[in-house]
Amino acid sequence: MLVIKGLKARVEDKQILNGIDLTINPGEVHAIMGPNGSGKSTLAHVLSGRPGYEITGGSVTLDGKDLLALSPEDRARAGVFLAFQYPVEIPGVNNTYFLKAALNAVRKSKGEEELDAMDFLELVKAKLKPLKMDESMLQRAVNEGFSGGEKKKNEILQMAVLEPKLGILDETDSGLDIDALKVVADGVNALRGKNRSFLVVTHYQRLLDYIVPDQVHVLAGGKIIKTGGKELALELEEKGYGWLTGEKVNA
Amino acid sequence: MSTLTTQDLYLSSFSQLQAKLPGQDAAWLKTLRLQALEQFKQTGFPTDELESWKYTNLSLSLLKESFTFDAPASTTAVAAQLKKAGFDTEKAHLMVFVNGQFSKELSSLKTLAKGVAVQNIASALTNETVKAFVGKIALSENRAFTALNAAFFTDGLFIQLEAGKVLDAPVHVVYVSTNAGQATQSHLRNLLVLANDSKANVIEHYWGENVSAYFTNVVTEAALAKGSTLEHMKIGQEDIKGYHIGSLIAQQEEGSHFTARLFSVGGALTRNDIETTLGQKKAECVMEGLYLAKDKQHVDTRTFIDHLSPNCNSTEVFKGVIDDQAVGVFDGRILVRENAQKTDARQSNKNLLLTKEAKVYSKPQLQIYADDVKCSHGSSTGQIDDEALFYLQSRGISREEAKKVLVYAFAGEMVEKIESAYLKPALKKLVDGWMEVS
Ligand SMILES: Nc1ncnc2c1ncn2[C@@H]1O[C@H](COP(=O)(O)OP(=O)(O)O)[C@@H](O)[C@H]1O
Ligand SMILES: [Mg+2]
Q1: Which of B61, B130, B155, B398 could bridge across to B122 with cysteines, CB 3.0–4.6 Å?
Q2: Cβ atoms of residues B235 and B208 within 8 Å
Q3: B291: helix, coil or strand?
């Protein structure tokens, strides 16, 4: 499904990713952990096509398709979804309008029929329930004035509506209390399936108690320095990152 | 052609035209026209040395053209076009002027109640009310275009409501300019007189279909007596050959409500002056507008709210979206005089620039001479939020579509504020249409 080879990227004059190799097969959940500033968000952004990064080497393919050659919208249409670490507030744009425009853009690109307002509303209401989100948030502007938890839930709602092939979650757990964390994790788990993969970026092991990964990678200094099973996350929780990076870093 | 010769041209045209202008049997008007011409002679056209014309240079645009007074009599399929634009004209009193002349054939008025007059002003020049108000609200002194208008106006709208009368349906007035060869001009004078507790809803709608340059110079005077309500909408849809200079000047008595809205999308150069005097206590005014400009369009909006009396409110919100190399100007002045205690005045101007070359000059001016008042103003100019743009794209929405969504997120507020079911769908269409071709 997703194959990353020797990926290098920089921002302005700062080299951030220094050769990432990572393969995620259909249905797998991979976690990326690492200290602050190690390049986790940068990797997530580069995969989703955020402007401002210069790719200085390597390749990324999704089902054999060269992802790096695509615009952000075409990546989304090809099945990449990024749940933002900091979801953007867009005053003046109604959440329902936004969700419907997004879904119809994706459906249209696949040659599927666009949904009308009625059908869409039915679909989105069904997806709201398991996330314990109030229907009133559909009438609000995108993320505007949402609490931290509401914003993260809204990301998961969008993912549930768009049904991507690859979900990239960037610190989706940060700022969530334990109840919200469970709801969000359940929302993600409900989307797991043999044709959908996830890349879960997190700073803490906590989330991985609920979204159990197939593999855990440690990113430091823009490189994957260790890969292991889910037990690696627990080890990191205990020992911090210092024993891997050779520095003293607060986990 | 220099400014001086353009001015001379108008002065010499007057002696030839004088006898053909409407109002030959109205001595007051003959006097008014002559006085105005004299004032114009003294003032001349404004230059950018004047503070109020600082960012709008006419010598490089309007004053380079020479416009004939012999605009062709012409007709257009107004009703069909309005329908296409989203207006259900069955629900309005429709008045149509083509090249400065009233077109009876294209107009259709509903039955009017007693005490309600809606007619073209050229047919009402011996009316005492017309005589009493024309030139008394919009003064020609030091206002070249108002003076020029007083001297040369051929026609316009006249509405008079007697006390307590309510005009239920909106009066939709369309001013069409159309030429094929020579550059043309029209000077239009509108007068709206509302007696105590009367109520009207008026739409001034300007559009053009022209081959050559044209110039529309319009002055609207509005008198709002005690407790009256006037909802005024001006839609500027001149074509890209058009120069539009317009004034809307109101005077408000006690407890009157005046709403002046502006939607300006058209014209090579557009200048709107919107002014009101809150002349007696508890009068209220709302000014709202949206100006959209692209290519090399120039759109200049100047407002003035004169708080003369105590306990009056004014709320002002203008937004602009400027694309390509277009230029927007907003100059909003609020004057709170000594006597105007308990004034509540709020003004906001926000602009969105879509390119690096687009420009906006925003100048809010609050002058306060009373001490017990609530006043606020704010002005901002920004670009499309790149973060928001990427967020939308990352959900599969194309960059182009995402930009439109964000422009509408900014500008749509001005459409959403409109309550009139007659106007709202058409204005939404107008804004959507503007984004479509930009
Ligand atoms: N736009 C930028 N300009 C300069 N440096 C940046 C920019 N974005 C990220 N960085 C730097 O790149 C490094 C990696 O950042 P990031 O990918 O956000 O790390 P993480 O998500 O692992 O905390 C950090 O040192 C950060 O300061
Ligand atoms: Mg991060």
Answers
A1: B155
A2: no
A3: strand
Which residue, B190, B156, B171, is CA-closest to B116?
Answer: B171
What are the phi and psi torsion angles at B155 (to 5°)? -170, -170
Q: Which ligand is nearest to the CA of A221?
A: 1
Count of structural domains, chain B: 2
SS3 call for A161: helix
* Closest to B415 in 3D by CA, of B288, B241, B296, B248: B288
Burial class (CB in 10 A: 0-12, 13-18, 19+), A82: buried
Of B280, B307, B325, the residue that ends a domain is B280
Q: Using CA atoms of B53, B54, B57, B62 in order, give the dihedral in degrees to the nearest 10.
A: -10
User: B403: Cβ–Cβ under 8 A, 6 or more apart, which residues?
Assistant: B354, B384, B389
Model pLDDT for residues A74-95, shown as the tens digit of each residue: 999 999 999 999 999 999 999 9
Is residue B177 in a domain? Answer: yes
Taking the alpha carbons of A63, A64, A67, A72 in that order, is the dihedral positive or negative? negative
Decide: residue B228, CB within 10 A, 0-12 exposed, 13-18 middle, 19+ buried.
buried
* Residue that is last in its domain, among B230, B246, B280: B280
Judge whether B261 lies within some domain: yes
User: Residue A237's pLDDT is what?
Assistant: 84
Closest CB to B398: pick one of A73, A88, A89: A73
Q: Do B393 and A82 touch (CB under 8 A)?
A: no
Residue A169: how many other CB atoms lie within 10 Å: 28
Same domain membership, residue B184 and residue B38? yes
Domain carrying residue B394: 385-438
Ligand nearest to the CA of A174: 2
Q: Which residue has the tokens 């440690």?
A: A218
Residues B394, B275: one domain? no
Assembly ipTM? 0.96
User: Which of B396, B401, B405 comes nearest A162 by C-beta?
Assistant: B396
The 3-state DSSP class for residue B193 equals: strand
Q: B317 lies in a domain?
A: no
Cβ-contact A218, A224 below 8 angstroms: yes
Does B326 map to a domain?
no
Please state the rounded mean pLDDT for residues A144-165.
95
Considering only CA atoms, which of B307, B319, B247 is closest in space to residue B283?
A: B307
Tokens of B290: 């949206």
Tally of CA atoms within 13 A in the half-sphere of A221 that contains its CB: 9
- In this prediction, residue A247 carries a pLDDT of 59
